[in-house]
């Protein structure tokens, strides 16, 4: 695959991931201002850490991608592109959880500028 083709695919995937995040976020956050609310509220109910909840949710998307890699002909409950988009979004959310945890612990050296 040529670099230009790859760059176009990457751009399309990033744009699709952003659209999915925008569409799903109100449901997952229960319209809460905190985009990480779903992980925090589930963690509180289950006696887990928010990052543990994130890991379970993220693993679900990775598992779907791995299942498809193992058997590309299997029936897709949702398009494979959507699974990759969800994985991208969960990586962003996981990183945000990590940075938030560090900033609440007084360790701001990895904090993103202008956040």
Characterization of the model:
- The chain has 115 residues and is mainly α.
- It has one domain.
- Helix content is 72%, strand content 0%.
- It has helices at residues 3-29, 37-46, 50-70, 80-104.
- α1 (3-29) packs across α4 and α2 (37-46) crosses α3.
- The protein is globular, with a radius of gyration of 16 Å.
Q: Which percent band covers the strand fraction?
A: under 5%
- Number of domain modules: 1
Secondary structure class reads: mainly alpha
Number of strands: 0
Helix content: over 70%
Biggest beta sheet summary:
none
Order of helices and strands: HHHH
Runs in which pLDDT lies below 50 for 5 or more consecutive residues are: 110-115
**Gyration radius, rounded:** 16 Å
Count of helical stretches: 4
Query: Average pLDDT, to the nearest integer?
Result: 90
First-residue to last-residue Cα separation: 36 Å
Shape: globular
Short key terms for the protein model shown above:
115 residues, 4 helices, globular, disordered C terminus
Secondary structure blueprint with pairings:
Layout: H1 3-29, H2 37-46, H3 50-70, H4 80-104
Précis, in short:
The chain has helices at residues 3-29, 37-46, 50-70, 80-104. It is mainly α. It has one domain.
């Amino acid at each position: 695959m040529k670099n230009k083709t790859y760059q176009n695919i990457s751009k399309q995937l990033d744009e699709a991931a952003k659209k999915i995040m925008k569409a799903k976020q109100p449901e997952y956050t229960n319209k809460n201002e905190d985009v990480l609310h779903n992980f925090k509220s589930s963690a509180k109910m289950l006696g887990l850490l928010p990052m543990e909840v994130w890991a379970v949710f993220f693993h679900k998307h990775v598992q779907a991608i791995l299942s498809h890699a193992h058997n590309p002909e299997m029936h897709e409950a949702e398009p494979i592109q959507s699974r990759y988009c969800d994985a991208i979004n969960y990586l962003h959310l996981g990183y945000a959880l990590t940075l938030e945890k560090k900033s609440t612990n007084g360790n701001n050296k990895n904090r993103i500028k202008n956040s």
